[in-house]
């Protein structure tokens, strides 16, 4: 039995051919938003970036960088996922929300990580597609002002170089 990556954390894992396999092989469409989310997780685990690209809605002018996504997938050891909750997303719905936790280990550092996200799915031409996601937890800090260099005038207005004033 080849355990489906999306079910690796489950008490009773499923065989890939009985879970995400037919969706990944494009033999069948994902019947629910959750099933597409599980297939997308399995696609990352199998480094199938074409499937990831095909199953998302891109905004005009937006592109999916398969190369960067593949680097992340290859640099990770995928441990399994846990679906926290779903809202709508059944075969009868046109939208759905899946909150999930993707467990993986960074190969470079060996650190175990959890990616927590609430994902929005939408039907396009009768097929479920990933539309957007909100990642939970700490986000990178973004600088709003330009960085003050050591030799720039100090921001306090003293007229001294930053390195000789407030940055000292």
Number of helices: 4
Largest sheet, if any? 4 strands, antiparallel
- Which spans of ≥5 residues are poorly predicted at pLDDT below 50? none
List the quaternary state of the chains: single chain
Total discrete domains:
2
Please give the radius of gyration in angstroms: 21 Å
- Any idea what the shape is? elongated
- The first-to-last residue Cα distance is 62 Å
Helix/strand order, N-terminal first = HHHHEEEE
Beta-strand content estimate: 25-35%
Strand order of the largest sheet: 1-2-3-4
Binned, the helix content reads 10-25%
CATH class of the largest domain equals Alpha Beta
Number of strands: 4
**Architecture of the largest domain, CATH level 2?**
Roll
The SS-based structural class is: alpha+beta
Nearest-integer average pLDDT: 90
| CATH fold field value of the largest domain | Nuclear Transport Factor 2, Chain: A
Could you characterize what this model shows?
- The protein has 168 residues and is of the alpha+beta class.
- The chain folds into two domains: 5-137, Nuclear Transport Factor 2, Chain: A (Roll); 142-168, no CATH class.
- The chain has a four-stranded antiparallel sheet.
- It is built from four helices and four strands, in the order H-H-H-H-E-E-E-E.
- The relative contact order is 0.13.
- The protein has helices at residues 21-24, 33-45, 49-54, 66-74; strands spanning 76-88, 95-106, 112-124, 127-135.
